[in-house]
Amino acid sequence: MTISKKIAVLVTDGFEQVELTGPVEALKKAGAQVTIVSPKDDKIQGMNHDEKGDTFTPDAKLSTTKPDGFDALLLPGGVANPDYLRVNGEAVAFVRHFVTSKKPIAAICHGPWTLIEAGGVKGHTMTSWPSLRSDLTNAGATWVDKPVVTDGTLVTSRKPDDIPDFSKAFIGLLEGAVQPA
């Protein structure tokens, strides 16, 4: 089945490179149109754990991108990326649109930090990088240590090793997702 969905990927400097490239490759292979959105309009720095990876040029600048033009959202992790995004009001508002519209959201590793700020975790069962356990629990989520968790329109995963299962779960959710109004 081909998914003809428009997916926003929200990232800035310090994202875990494979948590962007792996799911994006799987989404494109499944037929999705993927747009990398960033608060920056110049290159953003990927990371391979604690070493610099490649730089990427975003497809769209956050300040001029409307979230209602997308069917779903992908939030890659890395430590710095979601930490920068969760203190950026525009980024939080962008994510909050997907939360309040009940559109599919996939977050991996530290990606749920931005979801916490957007009010998108309370009442959900989720997973993440283990160091976010207390943050998610304190924000009202139930944290579990599993490779991937799907709860309603939310898919979460722990780490790069989980990317195949994470991508498969997100694509599966998108295949069954209702078209936005």
How would you describe what is shown here?
It is a single chain. This protein has 181 residues and is of the alpha/beta class. It has one domain: 3-Layer(aba) Sandwich (Rossmann fold). Helix content is 31%, strand content 25%. The chain has 6 helices and 12 strands. The chain has a 7-stranded mixed β-sheet, with helices on both faces. A hairpin with a 2-residue loop joins strand 4 and strand 5. The radius of gyration is 14 Å and the shape is globular. The two termini are 22 Å apart. The model has no long low-confidence stretch (mean pLDDT 95).
Number of domains: 1
Summarize model confidence as the mean pLDDT.
95
Briefly note the CATH topology name.
Answer: Rossmann fold
General form: globular
Through-space gap between termini: 22 Å
Give the spatial strand order of the biggest sheet.
6-3-1-7-8-12-11
Structural class: alpha/beta
Beta-strand portion reads 25-35%
Q: Would you report the number of β strands?
A: 12
Give the biggest sheet: 7 strands, mixed
> What Rg do the Cα atoms give?
14 Å
CATH fourth-tier homologous superfamily? Class I glutamine amidotransferase (GATase) domain
The poorly predicted ranges are none
Quickly count the helices. 6
At the first level of CATH, the class is Alpha Beta
Order of helices and strands: EEHEEEEEHHEHEHEEEH
Named CATH architecture: 3-Layer(aba) Sandwich
